[in-house]
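Checked the freezer inventory, then went back to the computational side. Two predictions to log before the end of the day. The first one is the construct we discussed on Monday; recording sequence and tokens without edits.
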Amino acid sequence: MSLFRNARFVRSVHDLRDLPPPGGFEVAFAGRSNAGKSSAINALADHNRLAFVSKVPGRTQLINFFALPGGGLLVDLPGYGYAKVPEAVRKHWEHSLTTYLQTRETLRGLVLVMDVRHPLTPLDYSMLEWFRPTGRPVHVLLTKADKLSRGAALDTLRKVRAALEAYGPQHSAQLFSSLDGTGVEEAEAVLAPWLGQDIKKPQAKGESPGPKTP
């Protein structure tokens, strides 16, 4: 059974005081506005409308919680980095993201979503630095991989993995496409242990496995 299929909406939170009580393990998804985060979540859940997809960047302004069939929660964080939102809203997002990522007891790891054509922006590096003190793992989904040739996508993947080495062995990356399903099984295999589940990791055709974790 898919790790995320049949996920169901639990609640949306604007103020951190309204977070659900810590319970099962949580995996959070974050990313720059318009990087394809909502589409990636929908592809993993095999559900076209689980997470709201907008053509207008900056529309996801809440922390959304989804219960997973095998236990645990998928947490969809607000997109970051969109300049055309009021300053007060942007500051609220930054405070909420930082506080949740650094203090949530049940958070097991962070999925950082980046457009494969524009990876590792300054704001992505800021997110990595915000999360670094937790010591928890980060897995990067390089979305929209279908927009590049296979060779160009793999070259970007190698560069991103090399950059992540500075953050330690718990940082990994893969190619992903919500359009053609590339990387869905691989992502599930990486995230399953975070949620206390066991799925064997497939290796994408033509893709190097990357550095081994000691």
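The second is the one RB wanted added to the comparison set:
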Amino acid sequence: MIDRTLLITISGIDAPGVTSAIFKALAPSPVVVIDMEQLVVRGHLTLAIAVEIDPSIKDDAAQTILESVRNNVRIAASARNLEVTTRPAVTVEVDHSPEKFQIIVMGSPLYPECINIVTATIAEHGGNLDRIHRIAHYPVTAIRFEGSGVAPSVLRRPLAEVSARCQVDISVQDVDLEARGQYLVVLDVDSTLIQEEVVDLLGTLAGVGQAVSDITVAAMNGELDFAEALRARVSLLAGAPAELLDRVREMVTLTPGARTLCRTLNRLGYRIVLVSGGFTNVIEPIAKELGVSAYRANTLEIIDGVITGKLLGPIVDREGKRQALIDFSEEFNIPNRRTIAIGDGANDIDMISEAGLGVAFNAKFALRETADTSVNVPYLDSVLYLLGITRDEIVRSDRGNCD
């Protein structure tokens, strides 16, 4: 049987016009392009092109045509100091496997041994890597692995074990055909968007800091019912002047990368909402500053300038956060598969479980066990990489001004 296909691989230093020059060399020949892929790593180009002789050409002319193709491409490549290899009888197989996955590995630093273990684990479970691409080098190194042949659900547990073993963050996701479009990002506030627990700050200013903090720790670890714990902490604030809330607003600090996360998502058309077990009295100005679409939190009752120790309206607890995610996704007409929830404590478990992608950010053990992925670096904008947003996109979106 006459070979009618040819795989051409060009490699060398990249420069503008390389791809155009190669295809200009191919243009006179009666061949069709059946596949191609190009990759540039630190200025080094690898371009692979699979061609096939036009079906209207008879077999007795095939070898002459392919030899002409080889010569023309080699001349064009040589003029640019590029190397060329060719291989005949290429069979191009279209991957019809419905099982696609995307894995993002983040580390600071990221060691070769970790990449070895990750890729070996993928192979052991039947996965094949189709593309590897670095999407960030700062503040963490983030590598995206795209592949096929195994369902993401099969890879999640073994790669979670690898994540703990190698002390890197690993996210395993379905490859969504809708790679770009509107998403809903639901952010917890205390110890996620900001670095403090607001109720603890209020407790300290009111002189009951240790008692409030002890209850907070137990609640975040899942040892106490959140609603019960919140009522207990708020009751300790009874009689404190409402002006303490103004002092707390000045004390809270955004988590590193929080502004970059929100600016980037806003500019890319994502919806951001804050859902918190904290207090609207403090969260409202933060929401305005960051340009989020909406927020839901608890409200302290204040009468005659004094905190009464009671709450107004329904409590935003563990179930309340889950319901908030559902409500906001319906309000903005965003399907569940396009929702991302980010939190740190046990009261975020239901919200994280409900979301299309649940992210545990420097989280307590109870939440890490539930979340789709964990981020254990102190930069909130690292979550962007889990969404497939590259560092270059962040810089372009923000014109290079990232916190």
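For RB: The chain has a mean pLDDT of 90. The chain has three domains: 5-88, 100-174, 184-198+240-371. Let me know if you want it refolded.
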